Amino acid sequence: MIVSKKKPISDILKSLHNYNKIFIIGCGTCSTTCKSGGEAEVNWIKDELIRAGKTVTGSTVIESPCIASQVKVDFAKNRKLLSQSQAILVMACGSGVQSVLENDRLSLRVLPGCDTLFAAAIDASNAFREYCSHCGQCVLDITGGICPVTRCAKGLLNGPCGGMNKGKCEVDKDQDCAWVLIYKQATKQNNLEAVKAIQPPKDHSKTIKPHKLILENKPR
Q1: Distance of CA 51 to the CA centre of its chain
Q2: Distance (Å, rounded) from C-alpha 40 to C-alpha 61?
Q3: Pairing of strands 114-119, 2-6
Q4: Rg of the chain, C-alpha, whole Å
Q5: What tens-digit pLDDT sequence spans the chain (220 residues)?
Q6: How far apart are CA 42 and CA 216, in angstroms?
Q7: 65, 71 contact by CB (below 8 A)
Q8: How far apart are CA 156 and CA 180, in angstroms?
Q9: Omega within 30 of 0 (cis) for the link into 201
Q10: How many angstroms separate the Cα of 191 from the Cα of each of 8, 145, 181, 194?
Q11: Which of 25, 54, 95, 197 has the fewest beta carbons closer than 10 A?
């Protein structure tokens, strides 16, 4: 999932300085889970905008605003309210904001209500953890399922740096060194030979943005 956090109300009001009639869109998946753009947060920002003298023309929570078809359906349902608006405030990640922009046919100003942080897994303690950087060249088969690109502060591919101390990272002494974790996992899985092999430099051409993928055969 994509983790985001609500922008400070002062930043939101600054971006809406020239607009008085606002329609609010929330996200029913990621932003709801991390409490940055679900129903409760949409109601919160609605009250804040009204308190600041703005007119909230309407609001909706789209299950996944990053999916064009869902945005189009919701826009059709709310077309009258949107036509009375000057701007759309999107309480979702950056992909959701840009998806709303791409599918807006009224030429409204589309603005973010959240800051996008990272893609995350949710661990057993309900903490959001960044485990993957979407680098396009996965080495998890070699490193026992632990990503050194993301979980090592320096993104090292061939073992720990000289600053590792007692299993902890020199950048964050409360953080386990990713390569200590990798070596422990490799030992447990009897896979040390793979970890000891020297890896070539990362192919950064695979991270050239923006990415695009078209599925020729859609899953049934």
Answers
A1: 29
A2: 10
A3: antiparallel
A4: 22
A5: 999 999 999 999 999 999 999 999 999 999 999 999 999 999 999 999 999 999 999 999 999 999 999 999 999 999 999 999 999 999 999 999 999 999 999 999 999 999 999 999 999 999 999 999 999 999 999 999 999 999 999 999 999 999 999 999 999 999 999 999 999 999 999 989 989 999 999 888 888 888 888 887 765 5
A6: 37
A7: yes
A8: 12
A9: no
A10: 47, 12, 13, 6
A11: 197
Structure tokens at 211: 């990415």
Give alpha helix (H) positions in the chain: 9-15, 30-33, 39-51, 68-77, 79-83, 94-103, 148-151, 178-188, 192-196
The answer to whether 107 and 114 are in contact (CB under 8 A) is: no
User: How far is residue 163's CA from residue 179's CA, in Å, rounded to a whole number?
Assistant: 12
Structure token pair of residue 126: 């309900």
Widest distance between CA atoms in the chain: 65
SS3 for 96-115, per residue? HHHHHHHHCCCCCEEEECEE
Which is nearest to 74 in space by CA: 58, 87, 85? 58
**What angle, 0 to 180 degrees and rounded to 10, lies between the N-to-C axes of helices 94-103 and 68-77?**
60
